[in-house]
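ugh ok fine here u go
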Amino acid sequence: MSLLERWISDKELKELEKEINEIFDDFTELLEKALPKSRKRESLRSLRKRAERWVDSFKKALSQRAEKGTDILIPELDLAELDNGFKIYVDLPRADKNSINLELKDHRLVITAKKVPLRLAKGEDWISQESLQGEYYRSIKLPPEVDEEKISASFKQGVLEITLPKKSAGRARTVEIRAA
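structure:
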């Protein structure tokens, strides 16, 4: 499923689709000049189908999000490599600590959390509200040297800190050769 960082109106979606089509048309024109005639039709047909599938999945993600009534927010993160592992710092402003979930699946770390909406006191009303409400989602492919059994995390002041230790490098040892 495609993820969106902000609301996109129908008008913006149509403009985006128009831009994608224009880029595709320009690319098609260049490709026609570069490819031999025998490969042109097949290559262009395949490319057009891929572009149409991308646009369709984008539209599907929009409609699913509209049905659910929430935005999917992609949190920003910083990644540092240490001698013994990695640290990931994920910005989750207004996330409820109890809603944060870390899941390991197929060497991917999936981070989800719910953003707590601001509540106004009785008698107050919004003049403008630009912040998005919804759920945070981020998936990170882990490097092969990460020891997935030793991953740990803490949450403080809206920042999730994830520690990813590296696997222990095997110690060199001598193998005894016995007589047969």
